[in-house]
Amino acid sequence: MNTPVIIQYWKPVFEILALWATIYHIMLFFEGTRALQVLRGIIVLLLVFFLVEKLNLQVLEWLLTKMFGISVIAILIIFHPEIRQGLARLGERHFLSTAPREEEIDRMLREIGVAAENLCRKKLGAIIAIEKNLPLSAYIESGVNIDAAVSSDLIEAIFTPNNPLHDGAAVIRRARLSAAGCLFPLTQNKDLSRIFGTRHRAALGLSEETDALVIVISEERQDISLVYRAKLYKDLSREELFLKIKELVRKENA
Fold first, then answer.
1. Is the pTM value of this prediction over 0.70?
2. DSSP letter string, 17-29
Protein backbone atom coordinates (compact mmCIF):
# COMPACT_ATOMS: atom_id res chain seq x y z
CA MET A 1 0.00 0.00 0.00
CA ASN A 2 1.58 3.29 -1.08
CA THR A 3 1.82 6.44 1.05
CA PRO A 4 -1.07 8.44 -0.55
CA VAL A 5 -3.50 5.56 0.20
CA ILE A 6 -2.37 5.46 3.85
CA ILE A 7 -2.93 9.21 4.12
CA GLN A 8 -6.36 8.79 2.53
CA TYR A 9 -7.37 6.30 5.26
CA TRP A 10 -5.84 8.20 8.18
CA LYS A 11 -7.20 11.62 7.25
CA PRO A 12 -10.88 10.95 8.22
CA VAL A 13 -9.73 9.15 11.40
CA PHE A 14 -7.65 12.17 12.38
CA GLU A 15 -10.55 14.54 11.63
CA ILE A 16 -12.96 12.49 13.78
CA LEU A 17 -10.48 12.41 16.69
CA ALA A 18 -9.85 16.16 16.39
CA LEU A 19 -13.60 16.86 16.35
CA TRP A 20 -14.17 14.62 19.38
CA ALA A 21 -11.35 16.34 21.32
CA THR A 22 -12.75 19.77 20.45
CA ILE A 23 -16.28 18.90 21.60
CA TYR A 24 -14.92 17.27 24.78
CA HIS A 25 -12.91 20.36 25.72
CA ILE A 26 -15.86 22.65 24.98
CA MET A 27 -17.96 20.56 27.39
CA LEU A 28 -15.19 20.82 30.01
CA PHE A 29 -15.00 24.56 29.39
CA PHE A 30 -18.66 25.01 30.39
CA GLU A 31 -18.57 22.34 33.13
CA GLY A 32 -20.41 23.42 36.28
CA THR A 33 -22.35 26.26 34.65
CA ARG A 34 -25.93 26.57 33.42
CA ALA A 35 -24.51 27.14 29.92
CA LEU A 36 -23.73 23.40 29.73
CA GLN A 37 -27.43 22.52 29.42
CA VAL A 38 -27.84 25.16 26.70
CA LEU A 39 -24.80 23.77 24.87
CA ARG A 40 -26.39 20.33 24.85
CA GLY A 41 -29.56 21.88 23.42
CA ILE A 42 -27.54 23.55 20.65
CA ILE A 43 -25.94 20.21 19.75
CA VAL A 44 -29.43 18.68 19.40
CA LEU A 45 -30.50 21.60 17.17
CA LEU A 46 -27.40 21.09 15.00
CA LEU A 47 -28.32 17.43 14.53
CA VAL A 48 -31.86 18.49 13.55
CA PHE A 49 -30.39 21.07 11.14
CA PHE A 50 -28.25 18.43 9.39
CA LEU A 51 -31.26 16.12 9.14
CA VAL A 52 -33.40 18.92 7.66
CA GLU A 53 -30.61 19.70 5.17
CA LYS A 54 -30.34 16.05 4.08
CA LEU A 55 -34.13 15.85 3.59
CA ASN A 56 -34.03 19.13 1.64
CA LEU A 57 -36.75 20.78 3.75
CA GLN A 58 -36.08 24.31 2.52
CA VAL A 59 -38.47 26.28 4.77
CA LEU A 60 -37.22 24.63 7.97
CA GLU A 61 -33.62 25.01 6.79
CA TRP A 62 -34.15 28.76 6.25
CA LEU A 63 -35.73 29.18 9.69
CA LEU A 64 -32.97 27.27 11.48
CA THR A 65 -30.26 29.22 9.61
CA LYS A 66 -31.78 32.54 10.77
CA MET A 67 -32.20 31.19 14.32
CA PHE A 68 -28.52 30.19 14.57
CA GLY A 69 -27.41 33.60 13.35
CA ILE A 70 -29.35 35.40 16.10
CA SER A 71 -28.59 32.84 18.83
CA VAL A 72 -24.80 33.30 18.61
CA ILE A 73 -25.08 36.95 19.69
CA ALA A 74 -27.72 36.12 22.33
CA ILE A 75 -25.53 33.38 23.87
CA LEU A 76 -22.50 35.70 24.08
CA ILE A 77 -24.60 38.29 25.94
CA ILE A 78 -26.64 36.01 28.22
CA PHE A 79 -23.79 33.69 29.18
CA HIS A 80 -21.02 36.24 29.47
CA PRO A 81 -20.39 35.41 33.20
CA GLU A 82 -20.22 31.65 32.47
CA ILE A 83 -17.82 32.17 29.56
CA ARG A 84 -15.61 34.35 31.76
CA GLN A 85 -15.64 31.71 34.53
CA GLY A 86 -14.81 28.98 32.02
CA LEU A 87 -11.82 30.94 30.71
CA ALA A 88 -10.60 31.53 34.25
CA ARG A 89 -10.76 27.78 35.02
CA LEU A 90 -9.36 26.56 31.73
CA GLY A 91 -5.75 26.44 32.92
CA GLU A 92 -6.64 25.03 36.34
CA ARG A 93 -7.83 21.56 35.29
CA HIS A 94 -6.02 18.48 36.53
CA PHE A 95 -6.50 15.91 33.80
CA LEU A 96 -4.57 13.24 35.70
CA SER A 97 -6.55 13.56 38.94
CA THR A 98 -7.94 10.26 40.21
CA ALA A 99 -11.12 9.46 42.10
CA PRO A 100 -10.73 8.94 45.87
CA ARG A 101 -10.48 5.37 47.14
CA GLU A 102 -13.30 3.69 49.05
CA GLU A 103 -11.47 3.98 52.38
CA GLU A 104 -10.92 7.71 51.80
CA ILE A 105 -14.61 8.21 51.20
CA ASP A 106 -15.53 6.20 54.31
CA ARG A 107 -13.10 8.22 56.44
CA MET A 108 -14.53 11.45 55.04
CA LEU A 109 -18.11 10.37 55.81
CA ARG A 110 -17.13 9.34 59.35
CA GLU A 111 -15.56 12.77 59.95
CA ILE A 112 -18.67 14.51 58.62
CA GLY A 113 -20.85 12.34 60.88
CA VAL A 114 -18.82 13.23 63.99
CA ALA A 115 -18.96 16.94 63.09
CA ALA A 116 -22.72 16.79 62.45
CA GLU A 117 -23.35 15.09 65.80
CA ASN A 118 -21.20 17.61 67.68
CA LEU A 119 -22.83 20.58 65.92
CA CYS A 120 -26.27 19.23 66.84
CA ARG A 121 -25.26 18.92 70.48
CA LYS A 122 -23.93 22.51 70.47
CA LYS A 123 -27.13 23.76 68.74
CA LEU A 124 -25.20 25.03 65.72
CA GLY A 125 -26.49 24.92 62.14
CA ALA A 126 -24.54 23.83 59.07
CA ILE A 127 -24.91 22.82 55.42
CA ILE A 128 -22.37 20.59 53.66
CA ALA A 129 -22.56 19.51 50.00
CA ILE A 130 -20.67 16.51 48.64
CA GLU A 131 -20.01 16.70 44.90
CA LYS A 132 -20.90 13.58 42.90
CA ASN A 133 -20.97 13.48 39.10
CA LEU A 134 -22.23 16.96 38.27
CA PRO A 135 -19.54 19.52 39.19
CA LEU A 136 -20.21 22.24 41.76
CA SER A 137 -17.58 24.60 40.33
CA ALA A 138 -19.92 27.60 40.06
CA TYR A 139 -20.93 27.25 43.72
CA ILE A 140 -17.36 26.71 44.88
CA GLU A 141 -16.39 29.98 43.21
CA SER A 142 -19.03 31.82 45.25
CA GLY A 143 -17.19 30.92 48.49
CA VAL A 144 -13.67 30.93 49.90
CA ASN A 145 -11.18 28.34 48.69
CA ILE A 146 -9.89 25.99 51.43
CA ASP A 147 -8.70 22.74 49.78
CA ALA A 148 -7.98 20.82 52.99
CA ALA A 149 -8.46 17.28 54.26
CA VAL A 150 -11.95 16.74 55.69
CA SER A 151 -11.91 16.66 59.49
CA SER A 152 -14.61 17.07 62.12
CA ASP A 153 -12.60 19.80 63.86
CA LEU A 154 -12.31 21.86 60.69
CA ILE A 155 -16.01 21.52 59.88
CA GLU A 156 -16.99 22.54 63.41
CA ALA A 157 -14.61 25.51 63.27
CA ILE A 158 -16.17 26.71 60.00
CA PHE A 159 -19.71 26.64 61.38
CA THR A 160 -18.91 28.19 64.74
CA PRO A 161 -20.69 31.56 65.20
CA ASN A 162 -18.61 34.71 64.58
CA ASN A 163 -16.62 32.80 61.96
CA PRO A 164 -17.05 34.81 58.71
CA LEU A 165 -17.80 31.58 56.78
CA HIS A 166 -20.39 30.04 59.09
CA ASP A 167 -23.44 31.47 57.29
CA GLY A 168 -22.58 29.86 53.95
CA ALA A 169 -22.20 26.23 52.90
CA ALA A 170 -19.16 23.98 52.74
CA VAL A 171 -18.46 21.99 49.57
CA ILE A 172 -16.54 18.72 49.48
CA ARG A 173 -14.92 17.62 46.22
CA ARG A 174 -12.89 14.44 45.71
CA ALA A 175 -12.97 13.72 49.46
CA ARG A 176 -11.41 17.13 50.27
CA LEU A 177 -13.02 20.20 51.77
CA SER A 178 -12.83 22.43 48.71
CA ALA A 179 -14.51 25.65 49.86
CA ALA A 180 -16.69 27.25 52.55
CA GLY A 181 -19.01 30.24 52.71
CA CYS A 182 -20.60 29.09 49.43
CA LEU A 183 -24.02 30.25 48.23
CA PHE A 184 -26.67 27.81 47.01
CA PRO A 185 -29.93 28.58 45.15
CA LEU A 186 -33.11 28.40 47.27
CA THR A 187 -35.84 25.98 46.24
CA GLN A 188 -39.02 27.44 44.81
CA ASN A 189 -41.07 24.51 46.12
CA LYS A 190 -44.12 26.08 47.79
CA ASP A 191 -45.15 22.75 49.37
CA LEU A 192 -42.14 22.69 51.68
CA SER A 193 -43.17 22.94 55.32
CA ARG A 194 -42.54 26.25 57.08
CA ILE A 195 -40.64 24.44 59.81
CA PHE A 196 -37.69 24.20 57.40
CA GLY A 197 -35.46 27.25 57.29
CA THR A 198 -33.06 28.76 54.77
CA ARG A 199 -30.47 25.97 55.03
CA HIS A 200 -32.99 23.27 54.10
CA ARG A 201 -34.32 25.44 51.26
CA ALA A 202 -30.78 25.96 49.98
CA ALA A 203 -30.06 22.22 50.22
CA LEU A 204 -33.22 21.38 48.26
CA GLY A 205 -32.44 24.13 45.73
CA LEU A 206 -28.98 22.67 45.07
CA SER A 207 -30.33 19.12 44.86
CA GLU A 208 -32.87 20.23 42.24
CA GLU A 209 -30.06 21.44 39.97
CA THR A 210 -27.29 18.90 40.71
CA ASP A 211 -26.77 15.35 42.00
CA ALA A 212 -24.91 16.55 45.10
CA LEU A 213 -25.48 14.92 48.49
CA VAL A 214 -26.35 17.75 50.87
CA ILE A 215 -26.19 17.39 54.67
CA VAL A 216 -28.10 19.89 56.80
CA ILE A 217 -27.75 20.35 60.56
CA SER A 218 -30.63 22.29 62.10
CA GLU A 219 -29.82 24.52 65.05
CA GLU A 220 -33.53 24.89 65.95
CA ARG A 221 -34.51 21.21 65.95
CA GLN A 222 -31.01 19.86 66.60
CA ASP A 223 -31.30 17.13 63.97
CA ILE A 224 -29.41 15.92 60.92
CA SER A 225 -31.00 15.72 57.46
CA LEU A 226 -29.77 14.49 54.09
CA VAL A 227 -31.07 15.91 50.80
CA TYR A 228 -30.52 14.06 47.53
CA ARG A 229 -32.24 14.65 44.20
CA ALA A 230 -34.87 16.88 45.87
CA LYS A 231 -35.74 14.19 48.44
CA LEU A 232 -35.34 14.93 52.15
CA TYR A 233 -34.28 12.28 54.70
CA LYS A 234 -34.90 13.67 58.20
CA ASP A 235 -33.82 12.92 61.78
CA LEU A 236 -30.77 10.81 60.98
CA SER A 237 -28.22 9.65 63.53
CA ARG A 238 -24.51 9.73 62.74
CA GLU A 239 -24.52 6.06 61.72
CA GLU A 240 -27.79 6.38 59.77
CA LEU A 241 -26.31 9.30 57.82
CA PHE A 242 -23.25 7.21 56.90
CA LEU A 243 -25.36 4.22 55.82
CA LYS A 244 -27.89 6.31 53.89
CA ILE A 245 -25.17 8.04 51.85
CA LYS A 246 -23.52 4.70 51.09
CA GLU A 247 -26.90 3.23 50.10
CA LEU A 248 -27.73 6.12 47.75
CA VAL A 249 -24.31 6.05 46.11
CA ARG A 250 -24.46 2.27 45.69
CA LYS A 251 -27.98 2.42 44.24
CA GLU A 252 -26.96 5.17 41.81
CA ASN A 253 -23.97 3.18 40.57
CA ALA A 254 -25.85 -0.11 40.28
1. no
2. HHHHHHHHHHHHH
